[in-house]
Structures are given as structure tokens and as C-alpha cells.
Amino acid sequence: PKTIKQLLEPGSSSAAALTSITGHVRSIRRQKRCTFALIEDGSTSKGLQAVFKHGVRGEGTSTAMVEKLRQLTFGAGVIVSGRLVESTGPGQDVELVVEGLDGVEVVGRCDPDTYPLQPHHSGASSSSSGKHSAEYLREHLHLRLRTPGIQHTMRLRAKVKEALEGYLTGEQEFVYVHTPVITGIDAEGGGESFRVGKGEEGEEFFGRPAHLTVSSQLHLEAFQAALGRVYTLAPCFRAERSMTGRHLAEFWMLECEWGGESPSCDLHGLCTFVEDMLRYTIARFLHSGLSVSPPDADNELHRAAFSQKPWPRITYIEAIHILQQAQPLFTYPPTLGHSLQSEHEKYLAEVHFKSPVFVMDYPRGVKPFYMRVNPRTDMETVACFDLLVPRVGELVGGSVREERYGVLRSSMVDAGLIPSPPETEIIDSSSPHSPKKPLNPYEWYLDLRRHGSVPHGGFGMGFERLILWLGVGIANIRESVGMPRWKGWMGM
Ligand code: 4AD
Ligand code: MG
């Protein structure tokens, strides 16, 4: 048996041959002599119309046939056999004509009264479209996957992942590495990590405190020191307490880390790499047939992908000056030394530059400990960037990493991650028979600098944020992933 997609490929089957498909009924229209059902098997976004010629009901149709017609409801799982013929109706080139009802087998019934996705179900919004609201569908995540919007997003995710990985593993020769999900550290120091563990002593993992990773970066740096150019695409977990449309508690992050020249790992080199990678990815997306956005949004993405001018790069201080000129617009006044608020980020990309924009060199105090400290000017800053894009705000964050042992150590002491007197014994020499000595979970990261540190840098991009940007019509990040995890989740 072929998928609908394979069946619809030109020259895939002769008109006379009997073919069969397995799928779900996506819509149904009943007429006197015929029933039309749109069958979908997930291989295409359109499905295939099946036409059942059953004769006038009540006039010569058997009870068996009447029963089968009754079972043929929206959502039912079916195997349909028929012949592919040119369609006379609008909307499709071919349809599957089924003679009698022998060609239909209802393999999985779907009760119209209880199926939550029925168009007339009480969860449908009162609008005439009969569509279910996003909130309603989030209560039925397992079935939501069968709706066309989410199906499209799943295809988009798969295509975008393929494009990004193709870019990285192609000429750039990055190596995909698998970083751990369970860690002893809170990589971003934001206090947003979820603890893991089992047992009465509290949340511990084999006798040591453990967290779900908030970012793979620190481990990725250890892989970088061994393999040169590495990336990972991995789930990250953050106990985000706010219910914004841009934050999830579980999200996927693409993280890259490399050292040396071409691609250069200085601050401008990092920005150039990210811009090239995203231009490539957007172009692939625009040519994939998955772009269904309104033309103006398409133009915005089109410009981002193909404009001759590089995306603007400004410093944090320049950003604050621009924002202060527009101050009456904001709830939070832009203040030197403070982080940018999401309203500020959106203003810069969407209103001021109307383009993706890199903001570089943030104050040391608002960024994590691992970023390389810039030579001192008026303000102490770090060699980092955030990429801000229209409609989404922050899409990527990255930095040159602090490779100097002494500077890194004092940043870590300032952040309260390690005690100030150097620890003399850092090797965990415990055997299974002796009690474990306490081991500072951040010492291994310092070790990377003790033993042959080289300059390197990297970035992390929220995969769902990228889907929000490319997927244009997706209003909330909870619709950018199949099974979102966020504060309001239903526990499934
Ligand atoms: O800016 P962040 O926190 O940076 C890091 O974690 C670095 N360690 C990355 C690195 O340099 N390797 O997160 C990076 C990106 C953000 O720009 C955003 O796109 C996304 O991850 N992100 C989230 N996406 C969805 N939900 C959340 N709660 C997110 N938090 C961050
Ligand atoms: Mg960030």
C-alpha cells in the first residue's frame, strides 16, 4: 500500500488499478447517492477525496450498508480501496472512486458525540468557522496533532531541523554531539532549573544534587575542546514562572561552539556565522512550499534572507540611546546597566530597524559568568550578542567564552558558584567503599581552563522561537511544538 503522497505523484499508478489507502476521515459530506469523505494519512497536507457510490439510501441499500455509512464519521479510521480518477469537482485533480461499500472498511470507529475534535463539539469557538480555539486544543494535545495547523507546524519543524543540520554538517563540518540532560549545575545561573531526584533525603541523583539542563553550553565547551567545531540540538528545561507567548518550560535549543579562525570565533565572527546560517535556513524554508504566511510577512523574511545589506549590529549602549529617544512608548524605561525588556527588543527589531538586529557588548552584571570580559571602558562589558528579530524578540544569544583561568575564576566567585580560596583537592577520589567527598560541581568547567584552554565561542538559538518567526501565523510558542510543557499544562 502506498501513502497518499506517493499515490499522487505523477505516473505513480495506472487509472485502472485498484489502490487502497489507510487513514482518518477528515471531513464528510453526505448526498443521496454518494458520500464524499476527505481521507488523510498524514503524508500530505491536503488528503485525498474518496467518493462512495452507494445508491439511494432506503432504496435497495442493504442494512449492512446503512450501518457502514453510519460508522463512516468524522475522525473514523478507515481502509479505502478504489480507483483513482480525474476529479470533476473543484479543489482536487484526482479522487478515489469506491464502487459500493465493499471498498470501505471502518477499522476504528470514532463516536461523533464524544470525539473532542468534532467541528460541532462544544469546544468549537462560537465563530462561524467552527474551528476550535487554541486554548481548547491545548487541553487535547494528543488529538491536537491531527489538526491541520499543528500538522503543518510539525512538518515545518522537521524541515527547519534538516536545513540547520545540513548547514552545520556540510561545508562547516560541525560534529553533532550528544550532551547530557541531567547535570550537576545551573549553566545560566538564573535559578530557573528543575531539580531531579528520588528519595527521602530530598531531590538527589545517586547522592548528588542534580538538575535538568537549562543549556548544554558548558558541557558543549568540553566537547569543543576535544573536537573543534561541535553542535547539539537538545531539550532544555526552565522553570519559567511567567506565562508569556515566548517561553516554554521545555524547549529545544540549537547550540554551536567552536574555536579558531574561519569561521572566526571573535564577536563579529559569531554574528556573521549566525547571520549566514539563518539566511540559508530562511531561504530553504521559503523554497520548501511550507511558507503559508501573508505576503508582507513573507517579504520581511524574504528581506532577511536575501537583502544585500548585512543585518545591523549595534552595541548595548547604542541600543539604550535609541530606546531612550522612544521612551514614552515603554512600560519599563530603558536604563543603562539594566537588561533589555522584551518590549524594548521588539521595538528595536520590528519598529526601529525593521530587520533582525544584533545587540552586542552587554554590561557584565546582566549576563552569565562565562562570557569573556571586554577591555575596560566606561562600563564593564562582556563580548556577547543577542539577535533580536521582528515579532519574536530575542532569538539567539551567544558570546566569546572567557578562556583566561584567572578572570573566569573571579567571575565564578562573584557569581557565588565557587568559594574564593582555591580548592586544593579537586579530584573526587572516592571509591564505592568510601564516603564521597563533596565536589564542587563547577570545578570541572574551570578545569577546562587549567588544562590547555584556547579561545572559543558559541551561541544558543531557541528552536521554537525560530519556528515562531518562520511560522508567521503561529501566535503563541505553545503552538510551535507538538506537546508543549508550560506552567498551565494538563499533566499528560
Ligand atoms: O539566552 P539564553 O538563556 O542563552 C543560553 O542559554 C546560552 N547558554 C546559549 C549559548 O550560548 N550556548 O538562551 C538561548 C536562547 C534564547 O535566545 C531563546 O531563543 C531560547 O534560547 N530560550 C527559550 N525558548 C523558549 N522558552 C524558553 N523558556 C527559553 N529560554 C531561552
Ligand atoms: Mg539570552
UniProtKB/TrEMBL annotation:
PROSITE patterns: AA_TRNA_LIGASE_II (PS50862). Residues 155-470 form the Aminoacyl-transfer RNA synthetases class-II family profile domain. Residues 120-131 have a biased composition (Low complexity). It comes from the Eukaryota. SUPFAM superfamilies: Class II aaRS and biotin synthetases, Nucleic acid-binding proteins. Keywords: Aminoacyl-tRNA synthetase, ATP-binding, Ligase, Nucleotide-binding, Protein biosynthesis. Residues 114-133 are annotated as: Disordered. The keyword Transport does not apply. This is Aminoacyl-transfer RNA synthetases class-II family profile domain-containing protein. It comes from Lentinula lateritia.
